[in-house]
């Protein structure tokens, strides 16, 4: 069965799903995206992803292509048509196709391009890597200054993952002015003496939907949280480290730049947060 992809109102086999070469997303990376997880055929944290999409669009003066209700119906339709139990829905909205290449934004009324597709990941929540953890390297953060907008400009994060791979690691944490901003496609945390430390929200990092949920659940579980920058050296001296994202949930980090974190194995705080996040998110999945 061919994957069914959503393109501007149509559900098409992936071979027939096409956008213009003049699309602003293709020519200018002028578009935003969301990755939302599906577990047991249900969508996790939909409201959070829909709210962040609206915010990203608003920050770029792009109109919302549809209502949240229409978006949810479309996600559900894609999940059903592709028989997804566990996986992701990828959504991209671009400033559309003005019919030519021009730096100026297209005239008002130019229709946005909306594309969405599913990714099938059976057993996503039971990822065995969560039991062993990942290794990260540090790289300079040379991205643009509005990382709070979830744009499709992913060249540097992509390069960062390749640099990690070349170094025998799994991912990279980006560093700016001496402090960790975030992972290439995830938010970064350390744990010291029971306190969860993660950089505060600003234009420097993406406002992770998983981050918001995990910090809420951690606070409800009476865990201590400090939202502040931290250095690679502090992280290397921490008891634990981990990342969060819609597709990785809570994933332990056991090594940074070749230095083992704590015991060098997956720690109790990350393990507990992963369990809480999965249980709570599943309970509210729609
Ligand atoms: N990435 N920071 C960056 C730079 C990201 O790209 C992501 C998500 C996150 C975590 O956000 P959330 O918890 O809302 O997924 C933080 C997605 C998963 C991706 O690009 O595939």
UniProtKB/TrEMBL annotation:
GO BP term (any one): branched-chain amino acid biosynthetic process
| Alphabetized UniProt keyword annotations | Amino-acid biosynthesis, Aminotransferase, Branched-chain amino acid biosynthesis, Pyridoxal phosphate, Transferase
Entry's Pfam families?
Answer: Aminotran_4
PROSITE patterns in the cross-refs = AA_TRANSFER_CLASS_4 (PS00770)
According to its UniProt record, which reaction does this protein catalyse? L-isoleucine + 2-oxoglutarate = (S)-3-methyl-2-oxopentanoate + L-glutamate; L-leucine + 2-oxoglutarate = 4-methyl-2-oxopentanoate + L-glutamate; L-valine + 2-oxoglutarate = 3-methyl-2-oxobutanoate + L-glutamate
Record pathway: Amino-acid biosynthesis; L-leucine biosynthesis; L-leucine from 3-methyl-2-oxobutanoate: step 4/4; Amino-acid biosynthesis; L-valine biosynthesis; L-valine from pyruvate: step 4/4; Amino-acid biosynthesis; L-isoleucine biosynthesis; L-isoleucine from 2-oxobutanoate: step 4/4
Provide the E.C. number(s) assigned to this enzyme: 2.6.1.42
- Its domain of life reads Bacteria
Q: Does the keyword DNA-binding apply?
A: no
Q: GO molecular function of the protein, one example?
A: L-isoleucine-2-oxoglutarate transaminase activity
Which is one Gene Ontology cellular component term of this protein?
cytosol
CDD domains to which the protein is assigned, alphabetical: D-AAT_like
Its needed co-factors are: pyridoxal 5'-phosphate
Q: Tell me which family the UniProt entry assigns to this protein.
A: Belongs to the class-IV pyridoxal-phosphate-dependent aminotransferase family.
Function, in words:
Acts on leucine, isoleucine and valine.
Q: What is this protein called?
A: Probable branched-chain-amino-acid aminotransferase
């Amino acid at each position: 069965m061919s994957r069914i992809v959503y393109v501007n109102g149509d559900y098409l086999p992936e071979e027939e799903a096409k956008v213009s070469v003049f699309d602003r997303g293709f020519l200018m990376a002028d578009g935003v995206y969301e990755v939302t997880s599906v577990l047991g055929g249900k969508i996790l944290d939909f409201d959070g992803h829909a709210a962040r999409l609206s915010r990203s669009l608003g920050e770029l003066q792009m109109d919302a292509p549809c209502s949240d209700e229409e978006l949810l119906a479309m996600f559900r339709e894609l999940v059903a048509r592709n028989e997804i139990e566990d996986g992701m829905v990828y959504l991209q909205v671009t400033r559309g196709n003005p019919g030519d290449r021009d730096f100026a934004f297209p005239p008002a009324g130019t229709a946005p391009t909306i594309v969405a597709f599913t990714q099938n990941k059976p057993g996503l929540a039971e990822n065995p890597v969560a039991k062993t953890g990942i290794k990260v390297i540090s790289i300079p953060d040379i991205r643009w200054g509005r990382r709070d907008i979830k744009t499709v400009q992913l060249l540097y994060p992509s390069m960062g993952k390749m640099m990690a791979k070349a170094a025998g690691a799994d991912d990279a944490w980006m560093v700016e002015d001496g402090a960790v901003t975030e992972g290439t496609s995830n938010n970064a945390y350390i744990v010291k003496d029971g306190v969860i430390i993660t950089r505060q929200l600003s234009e420097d990092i993406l406002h992770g939907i998983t981050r918001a949920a995990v910090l809420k659940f951690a606070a409800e579980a009476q865990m201590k949280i400090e939202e502040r920058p931290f250095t690679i050296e502090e992280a290397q001296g921490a008891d634990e480290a981990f990342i969060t994202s819609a597709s990785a949930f809570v994933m332990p980090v056991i090594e940074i730049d070749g230095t083992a974190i704590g015991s060098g194995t997956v720690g109790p705080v990350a393990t507990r947060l992963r369990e809480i996040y999965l249980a709570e998110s599943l309970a509210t999945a729609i």
